[in-house]
Amino acid sequence: MLLNLMHHVRIADIWQLIDWVRYMMLFFILLRETVRDVRVREIDIGMPVAYGITVLLLNLIPGHGDIIGCVGGALLGGTVLLFTVFKKESIGAGDGIMFVVTGVALGTYLNLVLMIRTMILAGAGALIYILIQRRRNMTAESMPLMPYILLSYISICVNCV
């Protein structure tokens, strides 16, 4: 029955469905890690790395994948990861790994847009944290970055629709 149904579905429709699922999975991974980052100030990288490897393998399929954009996005995220090492984790290593994963999923251009939007939103958030710092015991240096990555990803998804 399923094979009979699949016979009538165009290949392009299947790839569109796979892309939609891919982007929704990235949304839920970012949402999960945002909640974790806000609550316990750490990111579990197991699920994002497994997702990134899966997306990388999907990009290796001839005729559908964009392996150059995938590798470029990962290298762009890798520069953020290197930045975390040289700056002694002013941006956490988990955040850097998330940028590598989003780079694999989004490609070079969209990952660059994601990073720029994240830094702009995080800068605005840091200003708000500094302004209300007297009432809370949190410095701008200890604020989680994942909420800003999630908001930036949502803004990219809204702009693409």
Describe this protein's structure:
The protein is mainly α and 161 residues long. The protein has one domain (2-160). 76% of the residues lie in helices and 0% in strands. It has helices at residues 2-7, 11-40, 46-59, 67-86, 93-106, 108-131, 146-160. The longest helix is centred in the N-terminal third of the chain and has 30 residues, at 11-40. It starts with a helix and ends with a helix.
Summarize the model shown.
The protein has helices at 2-7, 11-40, 46-59, 67-86, 93-106, 108-131, 146-160. With 161 residues, the chain is an all-alpha fold.
Count of β-strands: 0
List unreliable stretches of 5+ residues.
Answer: none
Return the average pLDDT rounded to an integer: 83
- Largest sheet descriptor: none
Distance between the termini: 33 Å
Helix content: over 70%
Order of helices and strands: HHHHHHH
- For the record, the count of structural domains works out to 1
- Gross geometry: globular
- The value of Rg in angstroms is 18 Å
Beta fraction: under 5%
Please outline the helices and strands:
Elements lengths: L1 H6 L3 H30 L5 H14 L7 H20 L6 H14 L1 H24 L14 H15 L1
Helix pairs in contact: 2-3, 2-7, 3-5, 4-5, 4-6, 5-6, 6-7
What key phrases describe this protein's structure?
mainly alpha, 0% strand, 161 residues
